[in-house]
C-alpha cells in the first residue's frame, strides 16, 4: 500500500482534478451502483455533507440512537447542517432499526423530519448487519413519508462479505451512501460519498466549505484503491477471527459476549469496571475500546492474524478472571 502511495500519479484535485482520485471515484461508482462518487478525507465529513445535502435546516433526522452520526460526530448535525437528531425507539430485543420501528417513529415525527439515516454495519450495536431486504423495507417506510435515506456504510464492505451480497445491492435503496477506506480496508485515511450526479455536484462545494478540498490527494486515493483491490476479499478472515475471539472470551469472569455478525465484538461485564478492564488489558498489549461502564469493544482487522487473536483472547480472559476484577 505504501509503495502504491509513493508511486501514485497525482494532480491538483481542487483545481483541475487528480487522476488517481478520479480512478478511485469511478471504482466506487462501479461498486455502489451510483452515478457519481466524491473522495473525502473522513467518513464523518462525508456523512455531514450528506446531511447538508438531503436534510432541511430546522428539521429532524430519524436515526438509531447508538449510531455514529448520533454518538460519535460531536453534534455536527446541529452545528453544520442545522438539524436535530431524533433517535428511533427500538422494541425489546432489537439491536438496530427495522422498517416497523421506523414507520412507528415516522408516524409521529415525519412532520418535523426530513431525512432518515441508517448505519450498516452498525458499529454501536456490535457490527450488526442490515440485509438488503431489511434495508429496502426501511427505505420503503421512509419514502411512505417522503423521507430520503442516507446510508452510513463505513463498514458496508463487511456487510457485503457477511451476507454474500454486493455493495451495490446493499446500497440500492439509498439516495446517498458513504463508505470508508480507513477501517477494514486498511487505508490510512479516506472515505467516499456516492449518489446522483446532481447531488455530488453540490457536495463538491459543501466539501470545500468544510475544508475537505485536497491537492495531490492521489497519494491517499492510491491507498484506498489498494485496499479495495487487495484487502476487501479478505474481510471474511476478520469475521472468523471475531468469532474465535468471542468463543474464547465468553464466560470468562462472568463476562458475556454478544455473538458478532462481522468483525466487532461487544463484551458485557458483570460489574461496572470497564475502565479498569481496559487499563489492565492495555498493560498486556491488548487494546480495547471503552464503550459503557459495563461494556468494552474489540475489533479484528488485517494487522492481527488468528494466532494473535487467540493470544489476545487468552490474555483478556486472564484479566477478566483476575482477583482485581472480582474485587471491583
How are the secondary structure elements laid out?
Elements: H1 2-6, H2 19-32, E1 36-40, H3 43-54, E2 60-63, H4 68-71, H5 76-81, E3 84-87, H6 99-109, E4 113-119, H7 132-143, E5 149-153, H8 156-163, H9 167-171, E6 176-180, E7 191-195, H10 197-209, H11 218-230, H12 235-249, E8 256-258, E9 264-268, H13 274-283, E10 289-292, E11 295-299, H14 306-320, H15 323-327
Q: Any key phrases for this structure?
A:
single chain; 328 residues; alpha/beta; Aspartate Aminotransferase, domain 2; Aspartate Aminotransferase, domain 1; 4-stranded antiparallel sheet; 11 strands
Shape: globular
CATH topology of the largest domain: Aspartate Aminotransferase, domain 2
The whole-number mean of residue pLDDT values reads: 96
Structural class by sheet pairing and helices? alpha/beta
Count of individual helical segments: 15
Q: Tell me what the CATH architecture of the largest domain is.
A: 3-Layer(aba) Sandwich
Weakly predicted, low-confidence segments: none
Radius of gyration equals: 20 Å
Q: Give the domain tally.
A: 2
* CATH superfamily caption of the largest domain: Type I PLP-dependent aspartate aminotransferase-like (Major domain)
Strand portion: 15-25%
Lateral strand order in the biggest sheet: 1-7-6-5-4-2-3
Helical proportion, percent range: 40-55%
Spatial separation of the terminal alpha carbons: 44 Å
Write the H/E string, N to C: HHEHEHHEHEHEHHEEHHHEEHEEHH
The profile of the biggest β sheet is: 7 strands, mixed
Secondary structure: number of strands: 11
| Name of the level-1 CATH class of the largest domain | Alpha Beta
